Amino acid sequence: xxxxxxKQYILPFILIASLFFLWGAxxxxxxVLNKHFQLSLQKNHAESSLVQVMFYLGYFVMAIPAGLVIxxxxxxxxxxxxxxxxxxxxxxxxxxxxxxxxxxxxxSLFVIACGLVFLETAAxxxxxxxxxxxxxxxxxxxxxxxxxLGCICGPLLGGLLLFPGxxxxxxxxxxxxxxxVMGIVALAVAVVFTRIKxxxxxxxxxxxxxxxxxxxxxxRRLFSNRFFVFGLFALLSYEVSEISINSFFVNYVTDxxxxxxxxxxxxxxxxxxxxxxxxxxxxxxxMQHVGTERVLKVCAIGTFITTFIVVLNAGFISLVALVLIYxxxxxxxxTIFALSLQGxxxxxxxxxxxxxxxxxxxxxxxxxxxxxxxxSSISASFIIPLVGFANVAAFxxxxxxxxx
Length: 404
Prior knowledge:
Elements: H1 10-40, H2 45-48, H3 50-73, H4 75-91, H5 93-99, H6 102-128, H7 136-162, H8 177-195, H9 208-212, H10 215-223, H11 226-255, H12 261-286, H13 292-312, H14 316-329, H15 332-341, H16 348-355, H17 361-375, H18 378-381, H19 383-402
C-alpha cells in the first residue's frame, strides 16, 4: 500500500493540516451566530441568514484574486495573507460590540471569509500534491479531519458563550470573545508561517505550455474540460446543501421544541459535526482500499435519503436522519475537489481558485431556506439541500463512468 504522505513532505503536511482546524471553527460558529441574532436582535430566518450570505459572498469575491496571488507568489504567501486577513477580521468583533451594529458584524465576517479563501485555495491543492495521485482524495480527507475538529469546537464554544443560562440568547458582552481568541491564534500562526519555508511542489503532470499561456486561454482550457465543469457545479451544489443544513440545524431542532438553543448548539457540535469529523477519518481510511468514486456514490445516495426524511418531518426519525446527514456528507468536499483537479497539471492552481468560489453556495442556500421557512416551515426548507445532494449524486455516477 502506498504511503499517504511522502516522507519528505510530512512536516509541511502537519503544518498545513493545522490550518484546516482554524477555518473549521470559523465556519461552524456561524451556525450558532445565526440563531443568536434571531434572539438578541429579533431577526427573522431570512434576515439572520445574512450572516451566511455575507460570509460566503467573500469567497466569491476573493477566490480569483487569491488564485492569482498564489499562482504568482506561491503557497506560503497565500497562507500568510489568509491568516492575516482572518485575524484582523476576527479582531474587528471587539469594536463591533462597542458599536452594536448588525451591519458591522457582517462586514467583519466578510473580511474573515476573504482570509479563509486564501487559506483554502492554497491548502487544498497543496495537500493533494504531497503524495501519489492515487491517494490524493484520501490524503485530503485526512487533512479535512482537522477541519472537522474545528467544526466541533466552533458551535460548542459559541453555544456556551452566546446562549448562557437557559439559552435565551442574551449577549452578555461575550459575542466578541470567541472571535478575539480566534484572531489572536490566527495572527500567531501567521508569524510561524513567515519563519518556515514551504516547498513549492512541482505538479506531477505539469503542462509547461499551460504555464505560458495568457489568463484568458487558461480559463478557456479549464472550461472546455467538461469533467472539471461538472465537478465545479457539483461542489457548488454540495456547498449549498452542507452550509444550508448547518445554518438551520439549531432552528430545526428548536422549532420542533426538542431542545433549547444552547442544548441544540451542543448537539450540533458533538452529534452532527462530531460525526462529520469521524466520517472524514473513516472515509480517509476506507478510500485507501475502496475506489474513491464508489465511496462518493454511496455517500451521495445516503445524503439524499436522509435529507428526504428530514423534509418529511417524521418526528424522532427525522432528527436521527438530520444527524446522519453529517456522516454521509463528510467526505464530499475533499473528494469532489480532488476528483475535479485530476489531470489538470499546470492548470491546477487556477482551477483551485475557481473551485474555491463554490462556497458562494453558502450565500444562496441559507437565504433560500430562510425564505421558504418564513413562508412555509423549517422542514419544507430542507428541499433546497435535497436538490443539491441530487446534483452531487449525478456527478458521483458520472465520475465512476469516467474512470472505468
